[in-house]
Amino acid sequence: MRSFHCWRTVFYLIPAITLYTIVLGTLSLGSSLFQKTGYFSHWCARMWSRLILATTGVRVRVSGLERLEAGRTYVFVANHQSIYDIPILFWSLPYQLRIIAKESLGHVPFLGWHLRRTGHMLVDRRRPERSKIFEWAARLTSSGLSLIVFPEGTRSRDGRVARFKGGSFHLAIEAGLPVVPLSVIGSRHVMLKGRLATYPGEVRLVVHEPHRFAHPPNLAQPGFLTIVSVDCFAGRSVQAKRNLYTEIVDRLEEVGIPRDHVSITVREHPAENWGIRGGRAACDVDLGFDVNV
User: Domains plus CATH for the chain?
Assistant: First the structure.
């Protein structure tokens, strides 16, 4: 069965997708000469996405769109399981969307030309220019365009969500935009990373509640706003807490976060409120250290 899908991909899907890319890419490039907003080019991208999904046999079931406001600008943050995630999101989200893509895609005929001409950002992952990315995002969002970001940075091989990179949230904070988490479920089974075969199937896209990151208006670099929360046993002295605050701020400053952009909260809990070491109350356990410091 797998060999059938490999042959189907090579001799049917790839030629069909190549044709879609050439035709719609040409229309997109032509329109970019006359329309600077890129709206028609995005329509071409959505049609390209729809044709790819239909030809592959992928059905997308979307839930949660009612949580969004029509015409609003968002930063969409999605998990990344498959090369099909872009067509799934472009077709399913009724917004003007732009993405951050790896620099190498810019060299792909028609696709790369479309990305360069219509407002998408191509980034060299080895040497990303942070300031350039923030300037690009601010320019797009001021024009009412929404962004799609994959904070994992690459596709998952096993379907598990990898550690997020913070850049996507910095973009949202800098631009003052709400972040919309997206869950793409099942796309990895359409085309597994590292394999050529594609398979028909159903994919779920869940649109979660938007979240807005507020920040004090006096911050020089809002993207570096850092909120630290510490849960600990009750009993530390005021001086011990002062030392803790200083140590945290010093460590964060070493990695470029301004001291006045850090907010720290210490939440103290009585030892009887902690269940540890097999469900025992912490007050009944020899912790091996003195909490009252």
Answer: 2-212 (3.40.1130), 222-284 (3.30.429.10)
